[in-house]
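User: For a benchmark we're assembling, each entry needs the component sequences followed by a predicted structure for the full assembly. Here are entry 17's components. Please fill in the structure.
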Amino acid sequence: MLKGKHIILGITGSIAAYKAAYLTRLLIKKGAEVQIVITPSGKEFITPVTLSALTGKPVVSEFFTANTGEWHSHVDLGLWADAMVIAPATASTIAKMATGVADNMLITTYLSAKAPVFVAPAMDLDMYKHPSTQANLKTLQSFGNQIIEPASGFLASGLEGKGRMEEPENIVAYLENYFAKGQKYAGKKVMVTAGPTYEKIDPVRFIGNHSTGKMGYAIAEEFASQGAEVTLISGPVNLSCSTKINRINVTTAVEMCQAAQEEFVNADIAVMCAAVADYAPKQYSQTKIKRSGEMTIELVPNPDIAATLGAVKRDSQILAGFALETNNEEINAQAKLEKKNLDYIVLNSLADKEACFGYDTNKITIIGREGEKQNFPLKDKKEVAKDIVEYTYKLIK
Ligand code: CTP
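Assistant: Structure for entry 17:
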């Protein structure tokens, strides 16, 4: 999988830098071509001589070679790479990456790189846990960078906890997995709806629901990471997505329906994950409604977006929906699949603990057109997204 791949290995000033030599060796053994870019403090932990002996290439650290004045082009390096791996990544480098502080060759290369970026943090457990580090890692994820989570264990500080750089073997396995699945969905256009819709009553009030959008966002990210061109039609949520996703923000069901109809024309696959409000107030009050005893809000039905798309679906298109049920789960889900002309429906039950709204985990059953069922255990929503994306792949005609 890594044979012939051009990999930039960025090394920073952490005690875990000694593992970078072994990582380099493993990558080369797999047939990759490795170019090391090391920060000035990285060189305090491992010598460029060791690294260049392993890669057969000079290690890049400065913007130019002092005695000859030869300039090292971070732009060319960035374009050369099929992947950039920063291992170990210190809290300081992670912060610089998040904010674009381009004061060394590694960061300028990072900012120029077009290839996927993988970050393997290494630091003390309290530094890793600090809100600043966590916020910076979230920022990197929002750029589409992949974080190879540190492992738990003994740390150089003598403390024990999460912060130890992932072992080189596991970093290599992560990269191999990425390249193996990499472009499975290349050339496919995928549309995902996510989050709630807000139906306005007056300028300050609305009818909404508890959807956080986490499941839909995880699905959109997973399709994108497997090479699909993804459009995410999102209701109001407190989430960010990677820049490779085309995100369309909407508020109401009517807006979501309009955006979905426009996007569906060119989509190969549509996954309807949004918790769309079924009704909207008949009247919108331009001014804030004053309290005056008992009141009634008259509601009118919203369009059923999934059914609207189902009615115009072409044979080559795949349309998937979700069903959130409290009772008669499978019968209700099957009925929704038929009514909306879906190719499959993902059922989650409110009866399941730690599934659905607000949780990071979900437990699903996928029901196909012929009523065939596949049950999945309780998993992290990112893992659930992988199952859904995998299931979808089998349906591509
Ligand atoms: N859906 C939609 N438009 C709506 C309502 C639902 O696109 N106005 C989609 C959801 O995104 C989901 C599926 O239809 O994929 C089922 O949503 P759900 O709320 O469970 O079903 P409803 O059809 O609204 O049925 P009910 O609320 O009566 O259970």
